[in-house]
Amino acid sequence: MRIGAIHRLDYNEAIVLTHDKWKFDAGGIPQYAFLLATAREIDGDSRDDDEVLLLRVDGTAPLAMESDLHAVREEALRAALSSNGDPSPSVVLDVNLDPFTKNRVSFTGLRCRILGTFYEDDVDGKKRLDFGADVDNFYATSTYRVLKPVGEGLSEIASYLKPSDREVERVRIGSVRYSATRRRAKAAKQDDSAVMINIHDFIGTKTGLLGMTRMGKSNTAKIIIARTFAVSERRRAAGGTPIGQLIFDPQGEYANPNTQDGTEIAAIGEQHVRIFKFGAGSTEPHVRPLGINFFDPAQVEAVQGLIADKLRSDGSAGYINDFAVTRFTDIPNDYSETTRAQRGRLILYASLDRAGFALPSHNAGTSQAFSVKLAIKEELRAAVTEKVRRNLFAPAGRAFAVKGQDIRPLVDAIIELRNAGNVEAQKFCDDVRWTSTEPIYTGQTGQSGNVRGWRNLLDLKEFHNEATDQDPSEEIYRHLTDGRIVIVDLHVGSPPIIKALSESITRRLLAKQTLVFTSGEEPPSIQVMLEEAHNLFSSDKYKDDGDIWVKLAKEAAKLNIGMTYATQEVSGVAHQVKANTANWVVAHLNNTKEVQELSRFYDFAAFASAIITAEDRGYVRLKTLSSPFIVPVQIDRYDLDLVNEARAAAGDPALIPSPRKA
Fold it and tell me: In 3-state terms, the chain is what percent helix, strand and coil (to 5)?
């Protein structure tokens, strides 16, 4: 729709001449609207028919004769005031101008930034629409016509993707929205020009969801998650490797339905989604307990990792480092190492018992009463029996079983016998597994005296869940490599436990991906979704290479891990993380500090005032990896249609909305 002509033009900015009537007929020209300027003729030969300038309205601009027209208007008002006895505003200000003068003052100027140039390029004998982020030539201003794109034309502009080697799959994410006020756009039926993105831009890269709480960040994340799942299932069907998605959910909004969406990620299908949360029972097979059986030998690596993290509050004592790196798991076909691992677990379980951990009723995966297996020489067994005045040992193949309630009496007896000079007890305790764990049990070290030891374990008791039959970190990783969506529901649990568990899961993820990477193979594709990113990637934390979240941010790309992070504090996220963010989804922010920080990237400074003032949910400024410019978008709502689209990609039947929801 033609709305005017170029009044002035340079390489960066254009002043567009327009008229009130043309603006009205075009359904209005809001700030940030896209305009096109072209020198090409509709009929006849064109001076240059292969270039179209893309403009964005940034504000208004004075015209050459505007001051003179203001003087005419002022003089008319003065004359009306002088010739009329009634000086009221309704009389003076509403004086009718003659048609010629009224038409002249109806011209206005629009200050527009030149975003670049659309042109046709020949690629392998075929025409392709290309875009350059500058201007390589311009003509006299009278040559150009200026048009407002609408409908499919506007959608083509807003959805334009730079040609690249990346795989392309266009999906809808929303519609173009220039302003908070949408009356004219709706009246002119210009409010639903689709914005299509390349979903592959969001796979294997960093995506920032920035904005205040309840501004639609989670809704956008759900759309990305569902679309990524559909890509994953199509990859699987074509014989490729699927994409796993790990979502840390501190508010429970991804695991559970809510009034905003009317549905949830889990609706994609129980066979495709796994939810891990505290207190989970066995009634829902896709909901798994979030916790660890601290007394299960198969989960001892996870237990060791959690305890090692907690022990660091004791400083850098040597026993802590030894405990963190030694091995407490059995080694197949190595009887000697397995025997030492059993002894290490014995005193580890005694430490847990002393810290108040509830002993399991049964051995993991069996109906047998809880006990520990132990290889122990006859001489030491006899000495222990004599000291505690009862037999603690029941034959169990080549080893002996010790009941749970007898673990601490056994450990106490062995330590006392060793200290008294018993040779067999000294041999029993001479391995690093025992020596690095004993300070935890006793609260004492030979080098530094008293330490907190087992008291450090008190905060970990919430983790203990006898019903957990395997390390959730291991189970989660297997689900991810199978292409499932894994939601870690953290809205129930104390902050220290939530922090420790999230870090444990992430540490295991990085370790597994690194192992595959260093073996010369391609790690599986995994996406990680993080909330409250300002608490994870602060500038101070980013200096600590040992911090697991910093490690994730730095190593994610090479390990084939994509990362989506959400925050309302843009300034709280380290500059290095933002500098490597490929996709930006910016909703309402309520203060200039955050907007100023955002303005350091791309062209977000131009949208600063709108970002602060417009509080509409889902109204964002979007910059993706393949898009050459920022697009103002109203994000679609995550709903049952999108769920069914994801289910269809997996070959599952559509869900039918309940009458109440319909």
Answer: 40, 20, 40
* pTM of this structure: 0.79
Q: Which residues contact 113 (CB under 8 A, 6 or more apart)?
A: 12, 13, 55, 56, 58, 606
Domain boundaries, the chain: 2-149, 194-291+471-649, 297-463
Quick: pLDDT tens for 504-527.
889 889 999 999 999 989 999 999
How are strands ordered across the β-sheet holding 170-176?
194-198, 170-176, 631-635, 619-623, 583-586, 206-210, 561-567, 525-530, 243-249, 485-489, 273-277, 287-289
Using one digit for the tens of pLDDT, what is the confidence trace for 193-231? 999 999 999 999 999 999 998 888 889 999 999 999 999
Burial class (CB in 10 A: 0-12, 13-18, 19+), 437: buried
Which pLDDT score is estimated for 14?
92
Nearest to 631 by CA among 640, 639, 642, 620: 620
- Per-residue pLDDT tens for 335-349? 889 999 999 999 999
Residue identified by tokens 């237990």 is 303
Which run of H or of E encompasses 332? none
d(CA 215, CA 587): 6
CATH 3.40.50.300 is right for the domain spanning 194-291+471-649: yes
Q: Give the model confidence (pLDDT) of 220-271 as tens digits.
A: 999 999 999 999 999 999 999 999 999 988 877 787 766 555 578 888 988 9
